[in-house]
Design goal:
TIM Barrel; 7-stranded mixed β-sheet; two-stranded antiparallel ribbon; 207 residues; alpha/beta; globular; 9 strands; 5 helices
Length: 207
């Protein structure tokens, strides 16, 4: 695997660089979840839904793992967090700390999207601290988005953008608890500043 890119020095400062944060998402993993979009990605997938998250030098919101965990925990409706991006594994150490805190405090689960394949994350040259984050993940959706393999409008690929991506249920108890699945859906969030964020996967309905 090629060398992993060095991101702006927020990692060394113990901060996370967040592109966006959404409350109470229902389409990015099982249950009601906080949704964290990290800033920075080097995969460059054609027709990526979030190309604005690619820039490794751009600073969105810098936040400590403790403060992000507090934000997630402050909403009692949250059943867990989902990390998307961007590429979450470029900030693996800080995200692992967040997930550890929310699991210990309230038993909240972690879903993570990554352009890396599981075999890359566990191979000879994984991103720094990948193993720490993997230890905290309940469900990993791996693999680069491939536009020619885009799942159809009815969301045939559970929680996936393209059919090459795989679901890795890394915590068996979490997998057993997630048997009921209706269909992929999309969401539109309107933030207080008027920003509109579209998220989710092609499905027959919107939340």
């Amino acid at each position: 695997m090629a060398d992993h890119p060095k991101v702006t020095g927020y990692n060394e400062l113990g901060k996370l660089n967040i592109h966006a944060y959404l409350e109470e998402s229902k389409v990015n993993g099982p249950g009601i979840r906080a949704l964290v979009f990290t800033q920075g990605c080097h995969h460059g997938c054609k027709n990526c839904q979030n190309p604005e998250t690619w820039d490794l030098g751009k600073i969105g919101e810098l936040i400590s793992p403790d403060d992000l965990a507090k934000k997630i925990l402050s909403n009692n409706n949250h059943e867990g967090v989902t990390y998307s991006g961007g590429e979450p594994f470029l900030q693996a150490k800080g995200l692992a700390e967040v997930s550890k805190i929310i699991r210990e405090e309230k038993g909240l689960t972690t879903v993570c999207y990554s352009g890396y394949m599981y075999e890359e994350l566990t191979g000879k040259n994984p991103p720094p601290c990948a193993d720490f984050l993997l230890e905290q993940i309940d469900l990993l959706i791996d693999g680069r988005y491939v536009d020619s393999l885009k799942t159809n409008e009815f969301g045939a690929g559970l929680y996936r953008g393209s059919s090459n991506q795989k679901l890795w249920w890394l915590k068996p108890d979490f997998a057993k608890a997630q048997k009921n699945f209706d269909a992929n859906k999309c969401e539109i969030h309107i933030k207080p500043n008027g920003e509109i964020i579209f998220t989710g996967f092609g499905g027959p309905t919107f939340n």
